[in-house]
Structure formats: structure tokens, C-alpha cells
Amino acid sequence: MLSRRIIPCLDVRGGRVVKGVRFRDHVDVGDIVELALRYRDAGADELVFYDIGASPEGRSVDYAWVERVSSLLDIPFCVAGGIRDVVTARAVLHAGADKVSVNTPALERPALVSELADAFGVQCVVVGIDSIAEADGEWRVRSHTGDPAATRALPLRTLDWIVEAQRLGAGEIVLNCMDSDGVRRGYDIAQLRAARALCGVPLVASGGAGTMRHFVEAFRDADVDGALAASVFHGGAVAIAALKRELRAQGIEVRDE
Amino acid sequence: MVTRVVLVDAGGANLGSVRYALRRLGLEAEASCDAAAIRSADRVILPGVSTAATVMRRLRELGLVDVLRTLQAPLLGVCVGMQLLFEHSDEDDTPCLGLLPGRVTRLRPAPGVRIPHMGWNRLQPVRADPLLEGVAPGAWAYFVHSFGAPVGPECVLACDHGGPFAAVVRRGSVAGAQFHPERSGAAGARLLANFLGTGMA
Which UniProt keywords apply (chain A) (predicted)? Predict the structure, then answer.
């Protein structure tokens, strides 16, 4: 049986892993390869590297670190941030990433998703979605979330975008529920359940993990395929080995060694 | 002792990852689309992250279809590279290399069965094979694919996602892994080492 995936997300800037509080005040927390291997050894099933500088700064992309990671890592990893065309995606994939994740560029030009799927196959194409609950009760999409000052509210309904992204060729959806993000009160189960009902490709929950219980809820109650988290892993609040023991005890299939 | 390993450069995006995995085993492989280089290798690996039709078209353009069909050295297909070993793939209705009998078909979605099959799944023993030496029954491997090969006579490890499919196949000097050994931790490394070693002799 296919296991559920635990996916630490590492923010990368200038070839180093950084940590910020509410997208600001980034501090250096270590070398990319060193941290990647530490998470691999701890039992992570997959890693996401989010190049936080790339998109908001609109700068040219330097993905030399992707090759360093790929040469030493023997679990899959995805690169997000700053990928807005097939040429860049090809460079990242050829450097050794297994998947690329697109968010704002796919909202600006949805055909990008199809171009990537045609060039590399749907299994390489992840669509990341930042979503927020609005006053009228609808979940809607935000773009340019890498920089709070630049973030834009779009009229697009999150659930419509999930359907459209799959039609265009997304092989996986990462749904980041912004209301939950960073506050550690649990994943947004209601929103994830609504997404799950419309999502025939793998769905990854993002935003809100604070305790092991939150992971259990996301898998058990929203039937997601993977759960992504950053601060709880980086800060040591949740250890992956203990988390997997707990998930297994709750009858949720996870990879052990 | 294996000295020359050639990775067939058919445009597959995981070429670099496979090369690094071999480097971790202490072996420097060369990527090539040159027929003579491929024919004279000790081991040949056909990686593939793309679609069956794309890779077959590229192999035809490079004049490598017959080279692979008549190869003397052991051949390992990875992911799409394994699917191409069979006669036909339903992905874009593509005629393949025909080194192994059978047809590659689309995995069937069902409630709780998402396509692509993406993530870690268990390898189920089908029959003993030197290629599997040291790979524990039930070991985890990383899969990402939407099509699968049948559990036929050449299948040595199977997997299940809405139905059984072949995870590792071997017949004589022709072998394939549906999962990504370069991303499957210790089990993947062991399979690659066996392929390079005496497992295929």
C-alpha cells in the first residue's frame, strides 16, 4: 500500500537554508546539503526546497545547489520558487530535482502548467496554491505570497483552480492554507477535505502543523497523500521518527526503515 | 569487474540523478547517445522521466532502437525506461523496444487510489533473483508513474496501486525497475549495485 508522505520544507536563499518569522527577518540556519541529509536520516520521505529569494526579487535563477543536493540525497526532492518557464524548469530537473513546483507563475499564465507537463510528464509538475478564507465564506487564491507587501488577492476560487490545474496537467497539488500557516493550530481540515473531493492527483497539506495530532488529523480526516511542514521540524517540536511511530499507531501507513 | 557504464541520453530528466547514484557506489558513468559507445559498454542504463512516446521518438532519431534491441551487455531500464522494454505502451499508443513480452497499461484510479502513483510503496517478492540480493522483502521504494507493466513471467518484484504491476523485471540480460532506484534509499542503491556487480552476469 502506498504510504503517506512526511515532507519537510526548507527555505533557501543565496544557497543557504534560512528561517524567517512571518516572511521577514531571515536568519541563516545552515548548509542546504547538511540539513537535507539530516532530514533524510531522520526519516523524511521527500523534501521541498523553496527558493524564497527567486520569485519576489525577479532575479535570474542560480540553482547550483540543486546539483549538490542531488548528488548526495537518495530520497526525492522538489524545487519551488522562481520557476516561470520550461527553460528554467529543465535546468532545475537536469540538475537533479525530481519535481518542480509552480505557484504565482502558473496563476499569471496557466498554460505554463501544460507546457511543463508536455515537456517533462505530469509526474514532475506540482502546482502550489496559497489559499485564504474570505468574508463571503469562499476560499480564494493569493499570488506573490513570497513577499507580504506584494501579495495579491485574486478573484479565483481555490476549488476552481484545483480543478483547472489538474486539467492543465498538474501531477500533484500542494494546498497551503494561509489562515493556518505559521500559527500551529492544525491543518485546515475543512478546506483540505473540500480540495480532496475534487483532487484526483496526489494532494499535499500545507500550513498549520503544530503537533503530531495535526498530522494524524490531516491524513485521517482529509485523506491527504502527504503533509508538508517547516517550523515544527526545524524547531524540533515534532521529531519525524516519533511522528511516524504515532501515525503507525493510529493505523496510518507510513514508510519505516 | 564493471568498468564502463553508459547512461543512454534520450532526454530523460533523471539522467543526472542516476549518474550521481552510481557515483555514490564509486562508479563514474558516462552519458551518451552514441551507438558505438553504448554497444561497447559493460552495462547500459536507460533512464527516463518523460513519456513513452517522447523517449521512443528520441531513440529513433538517434538511431538507437536497434542498438538497444541487439545489445550484448546487461541493460537496465528505469521508470519509463523499463516500460519501453515491453512491446507496447498504451501511453500515446506507442510501439516500444519489444525486449520483453507484454503491454504497458494505464494504472486505474479508484476511490483512494490517486494517479500518478507517487510516493513510497512496498516491494513484494515474486521470485528470487540475483538482482535482488540484499533487498529485503517488503522494502520501500519511491515510485512516480501513471502506467505500469504486467506481473508476467519476467517479473521478480511486484507492487500494488489499485491493482498489481511489475516493480522489477528481469529476463537474461534485460532488466527494469519501475521505481526510481536513485531515489529509493538503501534498497535502490542495492539494486543498482547488484546490476553493476555479478547479479547480471
Answer: Amino-acid biosynthesis, Cytoplasm, Histidine biosynthesis, Lyase
